[in-house]
Specification:
The protein is an alpha+beta fold. It is built from three helices and six strands. A six-stranded mixed β-sheet has the order 2-1-6-5-4-3.
């Protein structure tokens, strides 16, 4: 089960990464996050909903973060598999290829119709 869970969570996170890097923030929010998702970002109030995920991505882009790459470093799930979490190290790059900020991300995933969707997204 652990290897299946890691593969599932890693694939879902890679989809977020792919859509972020493509600038498809609306699609990313709709296809990868629950409708009532929560975002908890350093220095900001807790936000809810897809529109706030999109706004956060647009803000990162305005700050110069155009691509991200990730490494899932820890993961686990509830006994019934309906909730899972992953801890991720993220690196980002600017348009010129230079490094932007690095940060850590914790996502709590909720299984909806058999697919893990990000329900809580926390970054430092």
């Amino acid at each position: 089960m652990a290897s299946d869970l890691k593969a599932a969570i890693t694939a879902r996170y890679r989809e977020i990464e792919r859509l972020y890097n493509a600038g498809d923030y609306q699609v990313m929010a709709k296809e990868c996050y629950t409708e009532d998702c929560k975002s908890v970002f350093s220095g900001h109030a807790i936000q809810s909903g897809h529109e706030n995920i999109v706004k956060a991505c647009e803000t990162f882009k305005q700050e110069g973060v155009v691509t991200i790459s990730s490494e899932v470093v820890d993961f686990s799930a509830s006994p019934d598999g309906e909730l899972a979490y992953c801890i991720v190290n993220l690196k980002s790059k600017k348009a010129d290829g230079s490094e932007a900020k690095s940060f850590s991300n914790l996502l709590i995933w909720k299984k909806v119709n058999g697919v893990y969707l990000a329900h809580v997204d926390m970054s430092n």
